[in-house]
Amino acid sequence: MNGQSKSTAESRKNSKAGIYLALHLLMMVFSLSSVCSKMASKQPVMSSKWILFYGLVIVILGIYAIAWQQIIKRMPISTAYANKAASVVWGQVWGLIIFHEGITPGKLIGVIIIICGIVLHAGASTEADAGTGGGSGDRRTTKEAGI
């Protein structure tokens, strides 16, 4: 491998890692909408705190919708959706930290299964990318491809 192709491969790897990091940060932000919903549910309907928390839900979901579109523009949708399960893990974290909810052995096993599934899917995606030259498929339109 010459120096230029090694640099290109390293740049692609760093870019892919950055997209995965952005995706998981987005899942963390997305999970905060549930925290705000739960906080709002503890308030009297139409009170200022209720409006504040539901307003935060709307803002968070708006940010999520825009960022999600940017993520799926840069990675295969199946990979993005497989990683979406990380929001369940964040839900457990927020439940423990903010609401002092316990983590039962069953919940812990569930979190471990989710993390293993995400890692297995990411590994399978990496193997598939290596077999196809690192791309995410033919990006030509059907008209350009002659279909």
- Largest sheet composition: none
Provide the succession of SSEs: HHHHH
Radius of gyration: 20 Å
Which parts are unreliable, with pLDDT below 50 for 5 consecutive residues or more?
Answer: 133-142
Mean pLDDT: 86
Number of strands: 0
The proportion of residues in beta strands is: under 5%
Summed up, the helix count is 5
Query: What would the principal axes of the Cα set say about the shape?
Result: globular
Please give the share of residues in helix.
over 70%
Q: What's the N-to-C terminus distance? A: 36 Å
By helix and strand content, what is the structural category?
mainly alpha
General description of the model:
This protein is mainly α and 147 residues long. It contains 5 helices and no strands. The longest helix is centred in the N-terminal third of the chain and has 39 residues, at 3-41. Mean pLDDT is 86; it is low at 133-142.
Short descriptors:
147 residues; globular; mainly alpha
Secondary structure elements and their pairing?
Layout: H1 3-41, H2 48-74, H3 77-83, H4 86-97, H5 105-131
Brief account:
The protein is mainly alpha-helical and 147 residues long.
